Amino acid sequence: MTDRPRFRTEALDHHQSRDGLGPPVGAGAPVRRSAGWAERAALLRARLRAGRRLARVPVCFQTQVSDCGPAALVMALRHHGIEAELDTVRARADSGRNGASARTLLDVARSFGLQGRGVRAELDGLAHLAAGTILFWNFNHFVVLESAAKDHVDVIDPAFGRRRLSRASVAESFTGVALEFEPPLAAARAARAGRGGADRFGPWGQLRRFLPRGRELYRLAAVSAGLMAFELVLPLTTGYLVENIEPGGPAGRLGIAAAGLGLLVLLFLVLQLVRSFLVTRRQAVVDKQLTWGVVEHLASLPYDWFTVRSSGDLAMRVRTSTALNQVLGLGAVGAVFDSLLIVIYLIAIVFANPVLACLVILLTGFQAALMAATWRRQTSMSQEVLERQTKAQTELVELLESITTLKASGVEGKAAERWSHSLVREVNKRLAARRSLAVSTSLSRTLQFGAPVAVVLAGAWRVLDGHDSLGSALAFMALTIGLFAPLGGMFEAASQLAAIRPTLARLDDVLRSAPEPRGVLAGTGVHEPGRITAEDVAFRYPGARRPTLSGITLKTSPGEFVAVIGRSGSGKSTLGMLLAGLHLPTSGALTVDGVDLAALDRPTYRAQIGYVNQNAHLFGGSIRDNITFGAEDIDAAELVEAVRLAHVHEEIEALPMGYNTLVGPGGHGLSGGQRQRIVLARALARKPRLLILDEATSALDPALEQEILDGLLAAGVTVVVIAHRLTVLDRADQVLVLRDGRIVEAGTPAELAGSGGEYLCLS
After folding, report:
1. Nearest Cα to 692, choosing from 552, 550, 592?
2. Is the Cα dihedral 630, 633, 636, 640 positive or negative?
3. Which end of the chain is more exposed for a tag (fewer CB within 10 A), N or C?
4. Cα–Cα distance between 266 and 276 in angstroms, integer?
5. For residue 158, which of 118, 100, 205 has the smallest C-alpha distance?
6. Can you spell out the DSSP letters for 62-76?
7. What's 532-762's CATH class?
8. Residue 740, class by beta-carbon neighbours within 10 Å (0-12 exposed, 13-18 middle, 19+ buried)?
9. What is the pLDDT of residues 717-730, one digit of tens each?
10. Is 243 exposed, middle or buried, given 0-12, 13-18 or 19+ CB atoms closer than 10 A?
11. Dihedral Cα 251, 257, 258, 261, nearest 10 deg
12. What integer best gives the mean pLDDT of the chain?
């Protein structure tokens, strides 16, 4: 029986035949390297001889599925000293929803000054590849190589972080294609110190906006300083009482000390309450900024941004933003307070007893090392939990949104089973993360318990030797106990911050994205949005190899009826989105009433027009609320007028509660034709001068469609209707026929009917 091949032969043959791939690495024949590679190898040997530890590859997590290639390239760039941000690399790679190819990654790397090449590698050849090499994984993913040994391979997965994989696992996933890079010249490297603001600290830079400022900062600092001073009262009081209270001595001194301590306890209570109120108010501010601020910024992003991200993933980001409130509101402020308290305790300990202070500093170092190890572990595991949680959430949203299709196909059980598998993987990974944290927490608390015990023993030994008095030893022990209390708080805060780092990175992707440009005419619209001119317009989606639209030239006049027809995939819907201002042309000029669309305030422009497609959404609520959404100042007469234009007034009135009838999210409880006409009425309620209908009447019969169009044209509305085929073409002022993203025929229905072209096949 022959051995099963390690890699898919067909895939390897395909990749080997591609241009730009070098000879196999580690396949038996030596690889001839350029002078640059020889210099790099010599530099590596010199560093090893000098005993220097090579720097680890910095981790960059992907924020969406299609980001694996750009995220892997960011890691390679940073490993070679070139500072790059994920959003910058993503923009240069133009990855879109489908991701970036290996060739694109090499081109983008060169634009940063990093030279690379594609190589073929067998499993044994991974040991010959340099750290920072990008590996093509599972034929749909990229990972970064960190090191390879005889029994395992260390890689960095943009989705999960650092992973140590067995050779068997690597053999199943590694396709044999790798991207290896040469170290750039020093002149090509961008200095890390040049980063500023939030960029300098990555996602942690976003924390700065949530920390207290101004008067609130001063108040919190003053209260915290007072509480820190009280933390030192107990050790000093302990030493004083032991040294000055003797058996049979006067009780007056003890009474004075007790009264003073009682007053201090009351003052401590007052300060603690003030600090709690300040932190609670800060928590409320953080909650508002996170929840409302994220959603507000999300809504301001351009439509293109949403086309490359799934709704389930975005819902997860918004939902997890509320979970950050507790950590950022209490944990961040508490961590700052604890860190200052630790510094004060260490200073007091060093001055109190330098000899015992060495032991305390050593024990503190153990706690810090444990904290650092826990941080790395929790960050990695939290990233995996978040990835699996997002996948389960996305699959659940897809299951619920497509339940009609699943039920009709009889596969709802299989869909639920697929989601349950994702849920089980999420639960298992979450359980593993909690177990790991439980072990680290147990070690930390054991150290907090054992450290004072060790100090007591050392202090007792010094008392027996006559080096210290009993009072000073007890005071030092109290200081040690006080030191390890905030250390424990720091450990818990670090664990919480490590757990939210992946979530914060995803929010950082949202908050760093630029809102939709307002144009040079921000806040202004146009007088006549129905007058549109396009001159040689082209449009290409991010990541697409060829334009979806090209050479588009058209002109509409106010009050016209323009029909756009074509086969599926011809670019009709994309043209409608361009006219609606949801996309901007890649090239060419698109003007509205003589003004360049890019110069307009597009949200204001879209508020002047109506755009309805076949997937238009109804919200949970009454029919009246759905129609008046975005036009709340409309009166009853205008509402009825818009509904009559959409030819749905009588059907709404026939419902038990009329316009107050409640509908479910998505319009559940209504027919497809009713949903389309209610959405159309919502667009008409704003009295648009331009109405773009993209398959918006697909659920209506031809007679009703004719009546609606007659009413719209009688009202003087410029109407652009997009469809595969149209039954009312004879009313159109001009017809545009699209094929493969180009207008192949244009004219009146009579002119096109006489030409005998594609129009006759579609009409």
Report:
1. 592
2. negative
3. N
4. 15
5. 100
6. -SSGGGHHHHHHHHH
7. alpha beta
8. middle
9. 899 999 876 777 88
10. middle
11. 180
12. 78
CA–CA separation, 475 and 480 (whole Å): 9
Distances from the Cα of 244 to the Cα of 247, 254, 476, 588, angstroms:
10, 9, 17, 91
* Per-domain residue ranges of the chain: 9-194, 199-511, 532-762
Residue with tokens 């990555």: 202
Q: Which two tokens stand for residue 587?
A: 């090239």
**Terminal-to-terminal C-alpha distance of the chain:** 63
Give the residue among 755, 516, 723, 508 at the shortest CA–CA distance from 612: 723
DSSP string, 83-127: ---HHHHHHHHT-TTT---HHHHHHHHHHTT--EEEEEE-SGGGG
Long-range (24+ apart) CB contacts under 8 A made by 195-199 are 195/83, 198/508, 198/512, 199/85
Q: What torsion, rounded to 10 degrees, do the Cα atoms 129, 133, 134, 136 define? A: 0
In whole angstroms, give the CA distance from residue 248 to residue 250.
7
608 has a pLDDT exceeding 50: yes
Per residue in 403-461, pLDDT (tens digit) is 878 888 888 888 888 888 888 988 998 898 889 888 988 988 888 888 888 887 887 88
C-alpha 733/C-alpha 561 separation (Å) is 5
Question: Phi, psi (5° rounding) for residue 54?
Answer: -65, 140
Q: Does domain 9-194 have CATH number 3.90.70.10?
A: yes
- Tell me how crowded residue 212 is: count the other CB atoms within 10 A of its CB: 20
Thinking of the domain 199-511, which architecture would CATH place it in? Up-down Bundle (1.20)
Contact criterion met (CB below 8 Å) for 606 and 600:
no
Edge to edge, the sheet with strand 734-739 lists 610-613, 690-694, 718-723, 561-566, 734-739, 742-747
pLDDT tens readout for residues 651-702: 988 888 888 888 877 777 788 888 889 999 999 988 888 999 988 887 788 8
pTM of the shown model: 0.69
